[in-house]
Amino acid sequence: MARRPGLSARLKLTLSYTGFLLLAGALLLAVVWVFLLRYVPDSPRGLLGVAPNRSLLVRVFAPAAAAALAFLLGFGLLGGWVLAGRMLAPLTRIADAARMASNGSLSHRIRVEGPKDEFRELADLFDTMLEQLQSHLDEQRRFAANASHELRTPLAISRALLDVARSDPARDRGELIERLHTVNTRAIDLTEALLLLTRADRRSFTREPVDLSLVAEEATETLLPLAEQRGITLEVTGEETRTAGSAALLLRMVTNLVQNAIVHNLPAGGAVTVHTEPHHDAGVLRVENTGHRLPPELLPTLTEPFRRGTTRIRTDEHAGVGLGLAIVHSVVRAHDGTLDLTPRPTGGLLVTIRLPVTP
Asked: pTM of the predicted model, to two decimals?
């Protein structure tokens, strides 16, 4: 927005300091006049013929008072300018950082030192905001790059299959169609997952009462054939757990958790436990599974889009698109909840989700 030029905050503070200082000096001189000089007799000769009279004192006092006011004016302007500069120094650094951020540089930090006050608190908040913006921007850049790569892969495979079919007309068309169907299905799943992730991030859904225990039962019932196919014991326990949110998103959240727990499990004889319970002011959902031990450095990356740990990569039909826990994290965040990932000492993972309870 274009604004007309005006006085700087430093100059305004300087003038304010000087004005108050001059006002205080003028009040002090007025007190001297009211309570001292007015009681001095204005006779030609003072008491006993030696004391000065009022007229003489006024002639002597007036130049001194004017000189004092002039000194206060200069001292107020100089001292106010210095003091205002020192007080506004953090604000100047904040403005410089904001200007750099508006030009696209989010790496600059203010880092104002000294005891806490309003300006330093504002600088710390601005630094925190810049860190969050940079983190989100880096995350979006990684997401865009990974999404482009993930979307390009099935398209490249489809083109390669079509090129092979064109160069070899005698090739089995049934096999080609089946492979194209598999590749396109994966691309559609990836696109739907990206749309779901965007919908959760924008919080574009209507909140309604949801029972997490019923959602957990529905999700596990859907995935029971997969668990039986892999020899995984699937158990659901708990009680009625009310929360508020999108039933569809919460169902996808639980489904992703249970599917991950089934797929990333032991080759045989594994177990998955889903438990729901109300706890104080939160509805708690726990999904626990057996499996291989997870290194601690792997946990922070599991909720990032398209990030897969080396011990969790799958190449079968249930490999997913790398957005399972990313969607879970996004849905939890959209519902103002918390997500905790804890490795089990014997191997596997414990996922704990806490969502606000419906009043």
From this structure: 0.57
